[in-house]
Design brief:
By secondary structure, the chain is mainly alpha-helical. A three-stranded antiparallel sheet has the order 1-2-3, with no helix packed on it.
C-alpha cells in the first residue's frame, strides 16, 4: 500500500495540551507543606540552575508521585528515613495496583531527583540529615545507540515530496536535524533569527538553555531555503510567527508533531522499527566520527557537558579501527611496506577499507558549503548527499 508523502503533524488540540508554566511554582498541589517545598525546589532548578522544561516536568511528576506515597503512609518530607525511600523505590521496581514496574532508566532518574531535592533541603537548612546520602539507583545499561547507514538516511530524506507546503517543511526538518544533530526539543524551539543562511550557521539552545553554534551543510541549507521561500509563507500566511518550524495551521510545531512527522516518513522509507527522532542525532554523531571528526569538536556540536557522553559514539567497526591504525601509526605504515608475504596480505586486506574511507571523505566534503566553518568544527566529512538539492513542491 502506498505510504503518505506528507505528514499532517498536529492533531486537533495537540497545542492545547498542558505545558510547563513559566515559574516552577505553578505545580499541582501536593500534600501539606510538600506543595511549598516542591515548588521552591522546582523554582530553584528553573531560575538558578536553568534546567530545561522537560527536566522540570519530569522532576515535578516524580516528586508528586513521591508525595502521594508519603501521604498514603502518613509520612512527611522532612521526617522521611533512608528505609522509607528504599521502600518507595522498591514499590516502583515491583509495580502493582495496575502499575507496571518502572524501567531502570526511569528509576535512575527518580533517584537523581530525590537526591537533588534532599540536597537542596539540606542546603536550605530545612532538614538536619540527608536521607538520600547512601541512596543509589540501578547501574545504567551501556547500550550502543541505534544509527542509520548513510543509504538509509538518504532514503529517509527523499520521502517528503509533493505539492503541499508540508513537503518542503518536512524535508527541511529532517535535513536540519541530521545536518546539525539536533534533539527534538531543540528543533521545535528554533527561531527564525537562529538561522544564518549566508554563513551556514545555526544557533540552538540545548539542555539547561545552553546555547551552541553548529554549521549547516549545503543540502540542509538548500532545503531550508526552499521551505522559507515557498512552504513556510503559505503555512503561516499573515500571522506573526517567530518559530522556524510550523505546523499545518501556521502555529509553532510541537514535539508531538515532530515525532509524527519523523515516524510517518520513517514508515514510508521502511525504517519505522529502526528509528525515532533521536536516531538522526545518533546517526549525525556516528557518521561524523567515521569520517574523521575529532571527539572534542563533536562534543561541542552535540552540546554535551561531559566528554564521556560523547565517547558513546566511538563504537567503530573493527575494520575501520584497523584502517585508522594503519593510516596513522608510523611504524605500522612502515611495516606494511616491508614486502613480506604476510605484510603484503595485510596491506592488501586493509587497502580497500582505506580507499573506501578516503573516497567517501572526498565525496562528502565536496557536498558541504562554507568549508571554513565546517573544517573548524570537524564536520567536513558529514553529509548524506541525497540527490537533488531541493525537494519537489
Amino acid at each position: 500500500m502506498a505510504q503518505p508523502q506528507t505528514i499532517d503533524a498536529d492533531a486537533p488540540g495537540a497545542e492545547g495540551r498542558a505545558r510547563v508554566q513559566h515559574g516552577a511554582r505553578a505545580a499541582a498541589p501536593a500534600p501539606g507543606s510538600a506543595e511549598r517545598l516542591v515548588g521552591d525546589f522546582l523554582a530553584y532548578l528553573e531560575l538558578e540552575r536553568g534546567l530545561s522544561r522537560n527536566t522540570l516536568d519530569a522532576y515535578r511528576s516524580d516528586l508528586h508521585q513521591f508525595c502521594a506515597y508519603l501521604d498514603r503512609r502518613a509520612l512527611t518530607i522532612e521526617g522521611v528515613s533512608h528505609g522509607d525511600l528504599a521502600a518507595f523505590l522498591g514499590e516502583l521496581t515491583e509495580g502493582g495496583a495496575g502499575r507496571p514496574p518502572v524501567a531502570a532508566a526511569t528509576l535512575g532518574r527518580k533517584v537523581a531527583c530525590l537526591r537533588s531535592f534532599y540536597r537542596h533541603l539540606r542546603r536550605e537548612e530545612l532538614i538536619g540529615h540527608d536521607p538520600t546520602a547512601d541512596l543509589h539507583g540501578p547501574p545504567k545499561p551501556k547500550r550502543l545507540p541505534q544509527v542509520l547507514t548513510r543509504e538509509e538516511v538518504r532514503k529517509l530524506l527523499e520521502q517528503p515530496r509533493g505539492s503541499s507546503p508540508l513537503a518542503p517543511r518536512d524535508r527541511a526538518l529532517l535535513e536540519v536535524m541530521y545536518a546539525c544533530g539536533l534533539r527534538a526539543s531543540e528543533a521545535v524551539s528554533l527561531e527564525l533569527g537562529d538561522l544564518d543562511l549566508e554563513e551556514g550557521l545555526l544557533r540552538t539552545r540545548g539542555k539547561g538553555s545552553k546555547e551552541r553554534i553548529v554549521p549547516v551543510g549545503r543540502q540542509a541549507l538548500a532545503a531550508l531555503s526552499v521551505y522559507l521561500r515557498s512552504g513556510r509563507p503559505e503555512l503561516v500566511g499573515n500571522r506573526p510567527q517567530s518559530r522556524l518550524l510550523v505546523n499545518h495551521r501556521g502555529g509553532a510545531l510541537t514535539r508531538q508533531g515532530l515525532y509524527k512527522i519523523v515516524q510517518g516518513h520513517a514508515r514510508a522509507a521502511g525504517l519505522e522499527q529502526r528509528m525515532s527522532p533521536h536516531t538522526l542525532r545518533h546517526s549525525f554523531a556516528t557518521h561524523l566520527l567515521a569520517g574523521g571528526c575529532d571527539l572534542r569538536s563533536l562534543q561541542e556540536m552535540l552540546g554535551h557537558a561531559d566528554l564521556a557522553t560523547t565517547q558513546l559514539y566511538t563504537h567503530l567497526s573493527a575494520e575501520r579501527l584497523k584502517d585508522a591504525y594503519f593510516g596513522a601509526h608510523p611504524r605500522a605504515s612502515a611495516r606494511r611496506g616491508a614486502g613480506t608475504a604476510e605484510d603484503g596480505q595485510a596491506a592488501t586486506g586493509a587497502a580497500p577499507g582505506l580507499q573506501e574511507r578516503n573516497g567517501a571523505q572526498g565525496e562528502h566534503s565536496g557536498e558541504e558549503s562554507h568549508g571554513a566553518h565546517e573544517r573548524r568544527n570537524g564536520a567536513a566529512a558529514h553529509s548524506p548527499g541525497p540527490p537533488g538539492a531541493a525537494p519537489h513542491g
